[in-house]
Specification:
The protein has 377 residues and is of the alpha+beta class. Helix content is 37%, strand content 18%.
């Protein structure tokens, strides 16, 4: 396949049928139309910088990495598929990829927003500053933001494949999923660096079935998000992630799948929300709740300590639903066809319908069973 030299803006969507590799190409670094404003750090597979387009003046973040020469053709195919899938997503809590360009032996991704840091950074900051109410208020809201975004991602037949605090960006009071399969697939293919990864996985946040068999489904994302939620809940209890980390170490490992009993102990005393996190961390993938159910419970049904949260962009979507929720709840409970349950099982599903219901309120359609590995079908 031949490369096409083309520039993108955030509104572009690559069609599923497109088989063209799309890059901007430059013969050398002097031709690249971006100037570095500041170094931001090292991301999952390369250097991260804040850059400005030299002619347009627009500021972006840039991730760049060296390409192993003999794998260049293979990497080009990964980039085409992965970027096409991520660019298809339109959500307030998912990064936007603006363009991808190549130089000889390197590749760079231009995206927004430019973050203040990642969730790891935020959790450490919150502990260092002795758990200020302002930071905890933002953190509490992010349970709704992250669950809603993941429900949307899964509805688009995409799996993230590497949810962890380092792949959740923080800018002001907002959070964004980033990297998706880009980091896990590229880690072993673009460079020789492999620290923290085994066959394209992050063992710390990977579920048992991925570690043992390499099988990934939507429920693998749920397990990883459950790990993240456990760390966020730790901060809400005014304890640090470092304390949690040290508490659950076993045989020099801090991987969640190996220390689930310690996680359960740490999350005591039991609340309905802590119990819900434990469901997300079930060793049996079929018993984990879907991302949509997680969103429904947090945003509409509610659980103790974290109930009825909506991130800002969800408020308009849920305005009508919340208005009718109370009035319809008692009616739904009184009907013979509506079986209302409390806690994590608050959502109702109609076995003969494809539309998801929550106490009789129609929500969006559940994703189809097949979810691709961040690739365009």
């Amino acid at each position: 396949m031949e490369s096409t030299i083309v520039s993108h803006d955030a509104s572009d969507v690559m069609p599923d049928s497109d088989t063209t590799e799309v890059f901007e190409e430059y013969a050398n670094i002097s031709q690249v139309p971006y100037e570095v404003l500041r170094f931001l750090g090292h991301g999952s597979f390369g250097c991260v910088e804040e850059v400005r387009h030299t002619s347009e003046g627009t500021v972006f973040a840039r991730k760049s990495a060296k390409i192993v020469a003999y794998k260049e053709a293979y990497i080009n195919d990964i980039v085409r598929r992965e970027v096409a899938a991520v660019r298809r997503l339109r959500h307030n809590h998912v990064i936007s990829i603006h363009s991808v360009y190549r130089e000889p032996r390197s590749i760079a991704f231009i995206f927004s927003p430019v973050a203040d840091g990642d969730l790891n950074w935020f959790l450490e900051r919150c502990a260092d500053e002795r758990f200020p109410d302002k930071l905890l208020s933002s953190l509490k809201l992010w349970f709704a933001c992250l669950s809603d975004a993941l429900a949307y991602i899964h509805s688009q037949k995409i799996r993230h494949k590497d949810i962890k605090p380092g792949n959740i960006l923080v800018r002001a009071e907002l959070v964004y999923y980033t990297d998706f399969g880009l980091a896990t697939d590229f880690r072993s293919e673009i460079t020789s660096c492999s620290d923290g990864y085994v066959s394209g996985k992050t063992p710390m946040y990977s579920p048992p079935e991925v570690i043992s068999e390499g099988k990934r489904s939507r429920s693998a994302d749920i397990f990883s998000l459950g790990c993240v939620f456990a760390e966020m809940a730790t901060l809400l209890d005014k304890r640090s992630v470092a304390e949690f980390y040290n508490y659950r170490v076993r045989d020099s490992s801090h991987a969640y799948h190996m220390t689930l009993d310690k996680v359960a102990e740490w999350l005591k005393p039991s609340t309905s929300f802590n119990n819900f996190i434990e469901q997300m961390l079930s060793t049996q993938h079929e018993k984990r709740p879907s991302a949509m159910r997680i969103r429904d419970i947090i945003s509409l049904g509610g659980v103790d300590g974290i109930s009825k949260l909506n991130c800002h962009h969800m408020e308009a979507d849920f305005k009508g639903l919340k208005a009718s929720f109370s009035s319809r709840l008692s009616r739904e409970r009184s009907t013979s066809t509506a079986e209302c349950v409390t806690g994590p099982s608050v959502g109702l599903e109609s076995p003969n319908r494809s539309t998801r219901h929550l106490f009789g309120i129609r929500l969006w359609k559940e994703p189809e069973p097949h979810i691709m590995d961040i690739a365009v079908e």
